[in-house]
Amino acid sequence: MVAAEWSDAFGVVTRGRVQLELRDGEPGPVLGRDAGFWLRGTGVRALRDPGRHTARVRIVTPRARTVTRPSTHPYAGHRMMEDDMSSMNDTGAVAAPASGQTSHSRRLRGLAGTGFVATLAAMVATTLAAALARAVGVDFEVPDGGGTIPLSGFAVVTGFFSVVGIVVAVALLRWSARPAERFVWTAVSLSAISLVPPLLSGASTATTTALLALHLVPATVMIPTLARSLRTRTD
C-alpha cells in the first residue's frame, strides 16, 4: 500500500481489540469489534493489540485514478491525479499483538526494578545517617507525645515514600510524553513540602536540623536514579 494513501484511510476493527498509538508515543483509546476510526487528523502512528488474541483491522483507503481532461492550460498535456472517493481500496491489516505492548511492559518493569533497588539504597543510607546523627548526640525526640523516633522508623518512612516515588515515575512513563522532566518537577516539589513537618514539630534545633537533612538523603538517591531511568527508557 502506498504510504500517502494512509492519510485518508478509515479503519474498522473486525476482530479482537485494537489500541491506537499516537504520534507523541502516548497510548490512545482501545477500540473493540466494529469500531471505526479515521487516520486523518487523529495523530495515529501505529496500531497495537492489547489482548492475547490477534486483532484484525479492515483498512479502507481512497483509490486514485488518472484522468486526462481537454484544457487550454499550458500544462494540459500533463496527467492529473484525482481522488475517487466512491472507489476504495479495501485492505486487511493485523495489529501487532506483542511487540509494542511487550516492549512497553518491559520498560515499566525495568523502571520498577531500578526503583526498588534505589529504595533499598535510600533506606540504608537514611538509617546510617540517622545512626550517625544519634551517635553525635541528636536525640530525635519529638515533643507533645511524639516520643523518640527509632532508627527503624526512618527506614520504614523512607521505604514508603520511595515506593510512592516509584509509582509516580511508572505512571508518568505510562501516560506522559515527557516523563523525566515531569517526574523531577513533581519529586522536587514533594520533597520541598516534606520539609515543612520537621519545622513545625517543635523539636530541638539539633533534631530539626537532622530531620531536615534526613529528608534530603533519600531524595538525593531516588530522584536522580529514577529520572535517569526514565530518560533511558524514553530515548
UniProtKB/TrEMBL annotation:
Where exactly are the transmembrane stretches of this chain? 111-133, 153-175, 182-200, 206-227
Output the InterPro entries linked to this UniProt entry.
DUF6069 (IPR045713)
**What's the protein name?**
Uncharacterized protein
Organism of origin is: Micromonospora cremea
Keywords (alphabetical) are: Membrane, Transmembrane, Transmembrane helix
The lineage's top-level taxon is Bacteria
